Amino acid sequence: MDMDPPLQLRVFNLNCWAIRYLSKLRQERIGLIGDTLGQEGFDLALLQEVWSERDYCELKQKLTACYPYSHYFKSGVIGSGLCVFSRYPILDTFLYQYSLNGYPYMLQHGDWFCGKAVGLLIIKICGIIFHVYVTHLHAEYCRDKDAYLPHRVVQAWELAQFIQHTSKGADVVLLGGDLNMHPGDVGIRLLRGWTGLRDSFADTERFEGCEDGCTLVPANCFINKEELQPFPLGIRIDYVLYKGLSRFVVKCDSLVTTTGTAPGKSIPYSDHEAVIATLCVKPREEAKGSSGSAVEPELVDVVNEARTEVRVGLHTAERQRYSNGRMAILALLLLLLQAAMGLSSLVGWDSPQPFPKFSFSLLSLLATVVLLLSMVLYVFHTIEVKMLQGTEEQMRLALQALQDKLSSM
Amino acid sequence: MDMDPPLQLRVFNLNCWAIRYLSKLRQERIGLIGDTLGQEGFDLALLQEVWSERDYCELKQKLTACYPYSHYFKSGVIGSGLCVFSRYPILDTFLYQYSLNGYPYMLQHGDWFCGKAVGLLIIKICGIIFHVYVTHLHAEYCRDKDAYLPHRVVQAWELAQFIQHTSKGADVVLLGGDLNMHPGDVGIRLLRGWTGLRDSFADTERFEGCEDGCTLVPANCFINKEELQPFPLGIRIDYVLYKGLSRFVVKCDSLVTTTGTAPGKSIPYSDHEAVIATLCVKPREEAKGSSGSAVEPELVDVVNEARTEVRVGLHTAERQRYSNGRMAILALLLLLLQAAMGLSSLVGWDSPQPFPKFSFSLLSLLATVVLLLSMVLYVFHTIEVKMLQGTEEQMRLALQALQDKLSSM
Fold first, then answer.
1. Is any Cβ of chain B less than 8 angstroms from the Cβ of A205?
2. Three-class SS of A349-369
3. Of B104, B168, B379, the CB nearest to A169
4. CB neighbourhood size of B204 (10 A)
5. Do A75 and B390 touch (CB under 8 A)?
6. Mean pLDDT of B220-242
7. Catalytic site residue from A182, A272, A315, A381
8. Which segments of chain A have a pLDDT < 70?
9. What is the complex's ipTM, to 2 decimals?
């Protein structure tokens, strides 16, 4: 294939933080994001946390001329928040919902209700098949005691597996999203190691933006400065990753992040910084062969590390399931006892000091609520246990295959 | 590639109906299935409804010598019930859980608790990459008034999309399972039309077994004869489907089903009949080109028909969500009213005829339970609505792509 000059692709990625009634200056910011996308004319805009479909429709209406193709991925109670605007036709889409995504009773965190997922779009640009993935993983609320780490590791594993299994027909793979993982975290090492995806920040020759490529920075007025205290420069959790397959190589010509405010404005687009990557796609020189087929021996350690995290999560989930089962049994016993007492009073076996009726009823109300809730939670944690066991088993199989490959090299 | 003689593959598929404490003669039948698999030495055995991991482990232990490789897919509360025994190494596995799968409150049906899914196994046989899919879709409990039809259509669509997106690297695609759809149903026409999979029963030259290839037959002693009354010959809902990609063609040399009892025994393996396909894989002759790339104009009608079913489901789900929302609001109002009455009696504003305390408490117990349940169901049906909307949108996009392809032909 002759491509002269090589294909240049400008990709915009942003976690928009657009929660109705909760996010500050949401409407102004959505307006601002729409204006910027319209003016800049990127090839692709990958957005996360566009929770309201009304906001998506507003953007879509504004951007029809510049981005005639777009897609919103629906899932969960609120919606996945994931959407994509494209200058090129979207040929097909597919959604994979992560099997684990926090807990429905953690209402203050709310990730469970979002149905976190990875969306795949197949886009053909100048005859090159792009598999574009957009995702948003479970948030990290407390780094020191991260209760969601096993779920995030499972999500990273499922993301890696999903990309590997669905990208065989692609020429170029592109992943953008808020991965909620620092660059050195086990999940991102697993994702990169397993898929061979390259990090635009690590690979680019020209970078402009926040130091270390951070995308949550203290300079952003919507950021809780206290939460970022252990990281004075901020943290990098939003990524544009890519790889060329078979006949193509991809390079990141330049990478830009916003630096606390939208360019030329007094407010930022979001509480996250936008990541803008300019990628260059050109045909692979035959001699160099296909990339990504070599197995790095370090990957074995990474999969092992991830597997340990999954095991820790499994242990916790089993404990939680056990407590809920025990609670359900206790509530059931109490209800049975009350039923027996009620029956005995009906047939005239009144005890000398009857239990006050009001307290009696209140107690049965409480027992019923506890029974119902703990039964639902028992079922929920059983599903969690099954999924963690399944992932652990998959990782074991993957490790075996890896070791076989390494020993035959 | 030179393959002389061509590769012959014997595939065994069975819905094992192995529900602990509920399925009749479960242990005997699992023993019998294990014995048959051991004696016959198939290349692949695709099993469904092995709900108990203990049964899987028993089979695994028995079959280690003959089938050194096996995998059990974990999901849902009970487990997916899907497992595979293979004579050849399993290189990788991946699980996709269907986004819709019945209702948790339909305890008598219980499909929701199984976490219905499609499992993918990648197996290399004589240098040929097989993508083997095993699945079990939502059951049909009443054909005339099938409340689960929209969910099953969504599952068929997700199955078709999953196969299409994950099979690009395969030489041969093989799908076995209990699809719970008659051969003419919209879901199976959608699945076959979208993926280009061929039906071993329709394609084979040599068939031996129940008339019309039925896999639920009145001759089976575990079958409820009344339920099969409209179909005197039985129905065909278990399938082995296949296709060759790029360099290979697959043919079904022969297909056999059991006929109500296990061969030479007095009891059947299960309430379903086993399907045994002998497939022949050989290199494609270059001149004939790759199959499956041509688009059939009828597919547009099939996708449209499926989309209509999804819309019907969407309408029902929206109505159910609305009723649950209304019920939650009513229960909340009742609780607020009771709280106000309770407070007024506390501050001494006793009404002349006070409400009996016991009935008062019982009513609040009822209101609390109703409030909790209807809130949970509201959330559940909201997720259902989102997924149906998402599928409908995906189908719209697919139709557009189909029509573009057809008009450019």
1. no
2. CCCCCCCCHHHHHHHHHHHHH
3. B168
4. 21
5. yes
6. 93
7. A272
8. 1-3, 287-294, 349-355
9. 0.90
